Amino acid sequence: MEFTLHSPLDMHLHLRDGAMLETVAPLSAKEFAGALVMPNLVPPITSKEMVKEYKEQILQASQDGRFTPYMTLFFKSEYDYDFLQDVKDTILAIKLYPAGITTNSSDGVDNFSLDALAPTLEAMSELGIPLCVHGETNGFVMDREAEFVPIYERLAKRFPNLTIIMEHITTKEAVEALMCYENLYATITLHHLYITLDDVAGGLLQPHLFCKPIAKRPEDRMALRKVAFMAHEKVMFGSDSAPHPRSKKEAPGCAAGVFTAPVALAALAQIFEEAGVLENLQKFVSDNAQKIYGITPPKKEVRLIKAPFEVPEKFGDVVPMFAGQKLSWRVERVL
Ligand code: DOR
Ligand code: ZN
Questions:
Q1: Ligand 2 centre distance from Cα of residue 1 (Å)
Q2: What is the mean pLDDT of the chain?
Q3: How far apart are CA 33 and CA 185, in angstroms?
Q4: Is 220 in the active site?
């Protein structure tokens, strides 16, 4: 069996910088036509110059002329209209992190009073710059996303013309909220379609599956699968592929992040085929994102075949999801 994807997109990707960028960028660039690149470097990407320089580094490292890095800025409530107007053409979205919630987010937002955020969000709304949100409170780890839902609702109501993307949703509560507001959209990762907390911590601890937001319950995974498998127009694929060196994962104080970029398309084909909905994968990994963001990625045809794919143990110093395991689909050719 064969299946061709046209210009697949990964709308939430961590590429890092330096040597790690050199290792991981070619892996995404080979199979994807574009990706929304997260700004949580040290220091975070907060100026037009930084965006331009980082984009240049990514293009250099990606070794593929048909890969578009769609850039983001790290949200700061200091951004005013003039700053945003000037930077607008170099970015596709702005990413908001609650302060300290995940890797390299200490400069994030610590005051969610909408009055504090309003000037920046109003300017973004007027300029048509989408807001991507890491939606977790600092409450009990399993409840963080559900507790953040009222904040999403307040944002959606107060800024009805602002496109808000609920990043890497993991709960049925988030799926329900998503359906209630016209200006809410969401990304869903590969790992949250596959795993629950049981896979992370139900047996021996699996550091390579530890991420933020943490994988949740079977009923949450079911809610995600339902909207992903039907390729609901409000959802799109965003891997949240987040490479960390092995020494940071297989360690006390394990860093959060699952590295999925090099296995994403094969594993998506597998799970969509198992669900009997392979024909919906095109919308989930490209068409929906093109509509939501109004983008036209480079043309790239990715041919997948149903044949065993033995996932390498490592890419450089990074262990991917499914390391050493066999997937039932693989990318055969990219045209
Ligand atoms: O698990 C995660 N890793 N979640 C995030 O939100 C950030 C990411 C990273 O940058 O490592
Ligand atoms: Zn992320």
A1: 33
A2: 97
A3: 21
A4: no
Q: Are 41 and 54 in contact (CB under 8 A)?
A: yes
Query: For residue 240, what are its two tokens?
Result: 């949240």
Q: Tokens 């599956």: give the residue.
A: 209
Amino acid 153 reads E
CA distance 71 to 73: 7
- Percent helix / strand / coil, the chain, rounded to 5: 40, 20, 40
**What would the pLDDT profile of 99-147 be if each residue is shown by its tens digit?**
988 888 898 999 889 999 999 999 999 999 999 999 999 999 999 999 9
Q: Which two tokens stand for residue 103?
A: 């890797």
Sign of CA dihedral 202, 195, 214, 264: positive
Shortest CA distance to 289 belongs to which of 178, 192, 186, 191? 186
The CATH number of the domain covering residues in 2-334: 3.20.20.140
Rounded (5°) CA angle 228-230-236: 40
Which residues approach ligand 1 with their CB closer than 6 A?
14, 40, 102-103, 134, 211-212, 242, 256-257
pLDDT 10s digits, 43-77: 999 999 999 999 999 999 998 889 999 999 999 99
Q: Whose CA is nearest to atom 2 of ligand 1?
A: 257
In angstroms, the CA 241 to CA 324 distance is 18
Residue nearest to atom 10 of ligand 1 (CA): 103
Q: What local confidence, expressed as pLDDT, does residue 103 receive? A: 84
Alpha-carbon distance of 311 to 329, in angstroms, equals: 11
pLDDT tens across 306-316, in order?
Answer: 999 999 999 99
Instruction: Out of 199, 240, 287, 317, pick the active-site residue.
Output: 240
Which residue do the tokens 């170099």 mark?
90
